[in-house]
Design a protein that fits this description.
GO terms for molecular function: alpha-mannosidase activity. By secondary structure, the chain is an alpha/beta fold. It folds into 2 domains: 171 residues, Glycoside hydrolase 38, N terminal domain (7-stranded beta/alpha barrel, Alpha-Beta Barrel); 45 residues. The protein has 8 helices and 6 strands; from the N terminus they run βαββααααβββααα. The strands form 2 sheets. The protein has a 4-stranded mixed sheet. Strands 5-6 form a two-stranded antiparallel sheet.
Length: 230
């Protein structure tokens, strides 16, 4: 089964600036000259792959929750709704269709899933109860698959991309290319220890002798994490 689309965050900051300006965050990527393949591709509008600023509702976030009971001293529903709708329009102004993918989450998120869904339900409800807003904004829980289907059905005229995304820079003088050549000795240790671990596991399986190899397993797992190996 083929992939329907590719959505990602890490895009060279200068290329992203240009794509935001000319509404080309979504495009068709001709990803292989040899295979003659292409795929619908989208780069996320907001920094990273999280929600608009101020709308993270996880345990580790400090953003204000939606207080929609008007008798509360901390009542902020109108203010928060206006901010949220402003973010929706801001993102929509850089898209080529009437559909936008609004991301709500991030790394290590939904450890307090109930907080997320309570606040998201409130935002959705506030928009739907507002006749002026609900006539213009149809907001609902969705998936990347549903979004890509809606995008294709809209038949937008999308630009094409022929090259790849390297080298990648997140800011001036911040190029993420060192991991191809950095720390060669450490990477050699990782390769050797990983091969040794696989050999140990195979011998354990063959001999049915389940000796404790947790120290080696933990060391290899830690070293192979992308923040360590690079």
């Amino acid at each position: 089964m083929d992939f329907e689309a590719l959505f990602f965050s890490r895009l060279h900051f200068l290329e992203k600036e240009i794509r935001v300006q000319n509404s080309s965050l979504e495009f068709v990527w001709d990803s292989s000259d040899d295979l003659k393949t292409n795929i619908l591709t989208g780069a996320f509008y907001w920094g990273g792959y999280g929600p608009p600023p101020g709308f993270c509702f996880d345990r580790e976030c400090l953003d204000e929750p939606i207080m929609d009971q008007d008798y509360l001293e901390e009542y902020n529903a109108v203010e928060r709704l206006n901010q949220f709708v402003g973010d929706i329009y801001k993102q929509a102004s850089h898209q080529r269709t009437n559909h936008i993918m609004l991301l709500m989450g991030g790394d290590f998120q939904y450890t307090a899933a109930n907080q997320w869904y309570i606040n998201l339900d409130k935002l959705i409800s506030l928009i739907r109860k507002n006749k002026t807003l609900s006539d213009k904004i149809n907001i609902f829980y969705s998936t990347p698959s549903c979004y890509s289907m809606a995008l294709k059905e809209a038949h937008p005229k999308l630009p094409r991309k022929l090259d790849d995304f390297f080298p990648y820079a997140s800011a001036s003088h911040s190029y993420w290319t060192g991991y191809f050549s950095s720390r060669p000795t450490f990477k050699g240790f990782i390769r050797q220890s990983s091969a040794l671990l696989q050999l140990v596991k195979q011998l354990q399986s063959f001999t049915m002798q389940m000796t404790n190899n947790s120290i080696l397993r933990n060391a290899v797992a830690l070293a192979q994490h992308h923040d360590a190996v690079t």
